[in-house]
From TrEMBL, chain A:
Reaction(s) this enzyme catalyzes, per UniProt: (E)-coniferol + NADP(+) = (E)-coniferaldehyde + NADPH + H(+); (E)-cinnamyl alcohol + NADP(+) = (E)-cinnamaldehyde + NADPH + H(+); (E)-sinapyl alcohol + NADP(+) = (E)-sinapaldehyde + NADPH + H(+); (E)-4-coumaroyl alcohol + NADP(+) = (E)-4-coumaraldehyde + NADPH + H(+)
Record flagged with keyword Zinc: yes
InterPro entries in alphabetical order: ADH-like_C, ADH-like_N, ADH_Zn_CS, CAD-like, ER, GroES-like_sf, NAD(P)-bd_dom_sf
Enzyme class: oxidoreductase
Protein name: cinnamyl-alcohol dehydrogenase
Superkingdom of the organism of origin: Eukaryota
TrEMBL record, chain B:
Protein name, entry field: cinnamyl-alcohol dehydrogenase
This protein's UniProt keywords: Lignin biosynthesis, Metal-binding, Oxidoreductase, Zinc
Biological process (GO), any one: lignin biosynthetic process
Top-level enzyme category: oxidoreductase
The enzyme's E.C. designation: 1.1.1.195
Cofactor: Zn(2+)
Domain of life, source organism: Eukaryota
Lineage, opening ranks: Eukaryota, Viridiplantae, Streptophyta, Embryophyta, Tracheophyta
Annotated organism of origin: Zingiber officinale
Amino acid sequence: MAELGNGKKQASPEEVHPRKAFGWAAKDKSGVLSPFAFSRRNTGADDVTIKILYCGICHSDLHTAKNEWSNAIYPMVPGHEIVGVVTEVGQNVQNFKVGEKVGVGCIVNSCLSCQNCNRDYENYCPRIILTYNSLDVDGTMTYGGYSNMVVVNQHFVIRFPENLPLDKGAPLLCAGITVYSPLKEHGLDVPGKHLGVVGLGGLGHVAVKFGKAFGMKVTVISTSLKKEKEAIERLGADAFLVSSNAEQMQAAMGTMDGIINTVSADHSIAPLAFLLKTHGKMIMVGAPEKPLQLPIFSLILGGKTLAGSCIGGIKATQEMIDFAAKNNITADIELIPISYLNEAMERLTKADVRYRFVIDIGNSLTEA
Amino acid sequence: MENGNNVAASPEEVRRSPAFGWAARDTSGVLSPFTFSRRKNGENDVTIKILYCGICHSDLHSVKNEWQNSVYPIVPGHEIVGVVTEVGGKVDRFKVGDHAGVGCMVNSCRSCHECAGHLENHCPGMIFTYNSTDVDGTVTYGGYSDSVVVEEHFAVRFPAGMPLDRGAPLLCAGITVYSPMKRFGFDVPGKHIGVVGLGGLGHVAVKFGKAFGAKVTVISTSPSKRQEAVERLGADAFLVSKDPDEMKAAWGTMDGIINTVSGNHEVTPLLSLLKTFGQMVMVGAPEKPLEIYAFPLLLGGKSIVGSAIGGMKETQEMIDFAAEHNVTADIELISMDYVNEAMERVAKADVRYRFVIDIGNTLSAT
């Protein structure tokens, strides 16, 4: 067993789990992924075993694979936008049956007993276990969805309604809940309210779709004018602001009830704060590396809020998927074979994708 | 003076009741006697003979032009308490002889969405008690003076029995902390509220917090304030912000934090003190931008919020609450001619915790 820096013993699944599995893993901080044989646990009494059909590529996968957050344990199998079909259920499982289409997002376990878990905020449980690169309760590191199968406690499995496409629905399991949860929590789901969406990428484009489905007026704020046509004509945004255009930004001052800021590059937030109405809120869901510089008057004038948000709880995730199915909300994806994975990661560093890569696991991942 | 091209009319051209106070003439911020005039009492106005005026740190920032917006001469002062000497024909909340106060605002547009929602403090046309251009084109003069004439809507009734001198600072310091504490539910008994900084704002926040039934922890850079905070002000606990062990033991324990510090400081360690969904309210205004790291906000769904005074309805509510619960400021009462020395001490935070000028007894026309 390897010794982790904090004194915990980390078992490799191969030493502890009996079921063979395979996927692609990053072996070092180059982040380059390659075929990798490993193991999964047997289906426990509360578990659901899933044959994976699709897995979305989230930018967090890239950050983690390259150890940009200084917490990488190799080998690492990323992927937390997993969709597949149930192949086995444990004896305590009532809510899922073999053959059902299901999804797994960013969380595979939590303590289920703290105040946050009890209020359906497993995403804020101090003992949260993430779908990959996390130390699970049995001492093994978790491996994610760039693989052929996964075994998950039923509490953390999301049912996919019949009419929700699996490939285009997969990114909702991270990108979707990441924007849906704070929009609901902060009352930015009210028809007629004005929502700003900063950044038009994986998170941003889904935020536009949810905002419109909530009946809101949606303005996209972006650094690139060339995204305007797309934003308005295809995604349905009502307006588009170029953040470097001082006149446009000035004209929009004090007009937005809320802003969801999906940008993870370093950027200036004070000009965005001025777009908010009195008591308006800006929600950060992106994680810029450098600290944001916030002149305090940008919040004090108008009594404004800068809030952070990180994914969402399981109940909210199921609610979000059901809402998406009902309102025909899916991600815009580029479906790729697993062999394209490293190239996709490189394009992702340049934000060269409209707007999420999804790996066609079912049709392209084969045992090496 | 040409009124047609946006130059402020000289008050003496527009107003006709003589007034007397102390003003700063330049960026040195030094104050000295100053004669000027107030408008005649209009039908919606209340005239107040000033008895006391608190010294707010904002007064110091203004007289020294630290916010780059000072128009000299400046008569500061927005924690004004006195006795009503005249009321206009349409005034119904005040009569001659009542005790009344004026805070940071003397006018607003009265028709925008914010004004309609009792948020005059966020009205784009809001007019400050001093150093602002009033609707008649004149510059407003504040409470370091013998009298003030104000629209009834912007005067606050002081209940009988409410001490005037110790109540005066509530008109700025009090409402500045009371408003966000109410807005964010820090007034629910049993909540755990942190108060950062133990000065004019901070000490009043502790008192309101205890009156709300909250558990209050003071966070300060100075260990020397511990005894004061706990034994005299009634705080339940005291953390020295530079002590990593003390701070760590308090991680994730606070529902909210009122941050009154206006010096530049790190906010990341303070965010760690918040529970999931906790909010840190900034009522102090540090000069340098805050450095905000994303993960401490994201992991825990935490917020940083700004707040600036409060509306008039809430200010009245705050004074009534303070009267009922015996919340007053801790003051050092001074004579008018001590004001420059007091300002120097304010700059060094050398006061427990607010200077109040005894206008009624010590301000006299030369």
